[in-house]
């Protein structure tokens, strides 16, 4: 039987090769066939999920509710010490120094990263800026969000904090963060479908041991991780409940 593995479309392109290596390593140790399928956007990935075409997924937290509560996916692990935080930034010489200074109608550049966009919209609430007050310019990558700001085509940009922190010094020198979230409990998670149930125990053992052998450590480093936090199902349920609370 062949299984199908996918990763969240918001993963940085420079990490893709590492995920292929991880997949090859995982197949070798589990002794089964797993194909890594990439999707260019969340919508085609969600369509594949609805058609039960995905067996293992490193998922954006925004999609965890559908995967866990509708499709019966099991929480396996999350990257150790990493959470999905958002930054709202502007260009360096913008007149607004904090969120409350922003104009009532804002031009914003963002990517199709649902958890970041949700958190960022919540952080705009102190400025009494509602979703209908945002003029959206959706682009493909955080680099393009930054360029939109540098060219002053938009007032603010929404960034995954990790992506913002990895902008080059040349770019970040001309940008200025207005606010950064500190939620800590929202993060990407590795989830497995019921179809892979027979491999759950082996996969958990494999992930837990990655940081204890040289090859595993090398793969983790290339993924940008220091290790995996092994999860219980209630950990995923807690995160889903938290996100439901934030958007309600």
Could you characterize what this model shows?
Strands 2-1-3-10-4-11 form a 6-stranded mixed beta sheet, with helices on both faces. The chain is an alpha/beta fold and 248 residues long. Helix 1 packs antiparallel against helix 9. The model has no long low-confidence stretch (mean pLDDT 93). 38% of the residues lie in helices and 22% in strands. It has 2 domains: 2-82 and 185-247, D-Maltodextrin-Binding Protein, domain 2 (3-Layer(aba) Sandwich), CATH 3.40.190.10; 86-180, D-Maltodextrin-Binding Protein, domain 2 (3-Layer(aba) Sandwich), CATH 3.40.190. It contains 10 helices and 11 strands.
Q: C-alpha Rg, in Å?
A: 19 Å
Q: Describe the largest sheet.
A: 6 strands, mixed
CATH architecture of the largest domain: 3-Layer(aba) Sandwich
Which stretches of 5+ consecutive residues score pLDDT under 50? none
CATH class of the largest domain, anyone?
Answer: Alpha Beta
Approximate helicity band: 25-40%
CATH fold naming of the largest domain: D-Maltodextrin-Binding Protein, domain 2
In DSSP terms, counting alpha (H) and pi (I) runs of 4 or more, how many helices? Answer: 10
Find the structural class using helix and strand composition: alpha/beta
Provide the succession of SSEs: EHEHEHEEEHEHEHHEEHHEH
Strand element count: 11
CATH superfamily of the largest domain: Periplasmic binding protein-like II
Shape: globular
Question: What is the residue-averaged pLDDT?
Answer: 93
Q: Can you list the strand order of the major beta sheet?
A: 2-1-3-10-4-11
* Percentage beta strand: 15-25%
* Through-space gap between termini: 41 Å
Integer count of domains: 2
């Amino acid at each position: 039987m062949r299984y199908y593995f996918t990763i969240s479309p918001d993963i940085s392109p420079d990490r893709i090769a590492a995920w292929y290596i991880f997949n090859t390593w995982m197949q070798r140790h589990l002794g089964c066939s797993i194909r890594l399928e990439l999707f260019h956007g969340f919508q085609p990935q969600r369509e594949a999920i609805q058609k039960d075409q995905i067996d293992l997924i490193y998922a954006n937290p925004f999609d965890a509710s559908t995967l866990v509560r509708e499709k019966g996916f099991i929480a396996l692990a999350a990257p150790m010490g990493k959470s999905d935080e958002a930054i709202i930034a502007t260009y360096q010489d913008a007149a607004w120094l904090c969120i409350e200074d922003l104009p009532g109608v804002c031009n914003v550049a963002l990517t199709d990263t649902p958890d970041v966009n949700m958190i960022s919209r919540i952080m705009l609430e102190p400025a009494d800026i509602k979703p209908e007050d945002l003029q959206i310019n959706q682009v493909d990558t955080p680099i393009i969000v930054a360029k939109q700001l540098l060219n002053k085509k938009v007032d603010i940009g929404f960034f995954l904090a990790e992506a913002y922190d990895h902008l080059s010094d040349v770019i970040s020198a001309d940008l200025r963060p207005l606010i950064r979230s500190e939620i800590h409990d929202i993060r990407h998670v590795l989830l497995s479908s019921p179809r892979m149930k027979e491999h759950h125990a082996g996969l958990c053992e494999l992930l837990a041991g990655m940081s204890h052998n040289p090859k595993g450590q090398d793969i983790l480093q290339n993924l940008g991780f220091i290790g995996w936090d092994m999860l219980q199902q209630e950990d995923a349920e807690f995160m889903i409940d938290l996100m439901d609370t934030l958007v309600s």
